[in-house]
């Protein structure tokens, strides 16, 4: 199991005032992380984060410690989600905590199935999927994880 989190960690819904914090988090990600998160190598601009915050088709959760955004997970109304954690804060259970909370949010919405796409080499994400009961389909260039939401 991942080591227990020893920082005071808060998982909460993102609000407009978090744009700067989320931007900083994305700046901390490596090109490989960005590829894992967005399936593209481009760096995320401030404007793109503003656009995400202005859309109503998703719930974004943040992991915050000491006033700093150290993780983010977004679930869209179509059931697809993705997650990213600050590279300096990994392997402490934050990714698992974010996805667990997203599952709870999906339960309280009308979403029947949630889904993630990742690369076959993304061991931490595949491990999160396995631990949380996702059905995993392994393809040559991607892994698809799905979870039926029980109510
Ligand atoms: C995927 C990601 C969110 C995981 O975040 P995290 O906070 O490190 O996740 P956790 O600490 O909950 O770890 C999940 C599992 O993977 C394991 N793990 C994490 N990083 C690992 C590493 N580098 N090597 C081996 N195992 C690792 C953990 O030990 C844990 O397994 P366990 O509970 O059996 O010990 C993070 O790696 C990330 O932001 N990656 C870039 C973006 C991305 O790939 N997003 C997913 C696309 S949907």
TrEMBL record:
It comes from the Archaea. PROSITE patterns: GNAT. It holds the Pfam family Acetyltransf_1. SUPFAM superfamilies: Acyl-CoA N-acyltransferases (Nat) (SSF55729). InterPro entries: Acyl_CoA_acyltransferase, GNAT_dom, MshD_Acetyltransferase. Residues 9-151 form the N-acetyltransferase domain. GO terms for molecular function: acyltransferase activity, transferring groups other than amino-acyl groups. PANTHER family: L-AMINO ACID N-ACETYLTRANSFERASE. This is GCN5-related N-acetyltransferase. It comes from Metallosphaera cuprina (strain Ar-4).
